[in-house]
Amino acid sequence: MGHHSFPRGRAGGLESNKIIFQPSVRLPGEKIIGSTGAGDAIAAGILFGFHDDLPMERCLEIGVCAAAASLRHPSATEGMEAVDGCLRLGQEFGFRESIFGSGDCPSGP
Hints:
- There is one protein chain.
- By secondary structure, the protein is an alpha+beta fold.
- It has a single domain, classed as 3-Layer(aba) Sandwich (UDP-N-acetylmuramoyl-L-alanine:D-glutamate ligase), CATH 3.40.1190.20.
- Helix content is 37%, strand content 14%.
- The protein has 3 helices and 3 strands, in the order βββααα.
- The protein has a 3-stranded antiparallel β-sheet with strand order 1-2-3, covered by helices on one side.
- Strand 1 and strand 2 form a beta hairpin.
- It is globular, with a radius of gyration of 13 Å.
């Protein structure tokens, strides 16, 4: 398993060489107060899902939603919520379009 961040989302690779891309939350600009801790929040969300044996798709979704929660405050932790609260941000604001369009991500090597 590997993962890479992009401003528009997060990509994760599986042992099957399948690459999964989760677009970032479409958080309105006025809601973005600071970016300190957003990368840590992505990692924490992914690890949370991985620890709970969730599918990689769900791990990446939790990660980008946690990052969106983090962006709402200038500190590294004050914008954070429990997982359900973070996921509600994705439901409320939706996700950006995939960098791969409507098709699947290309397979890994």
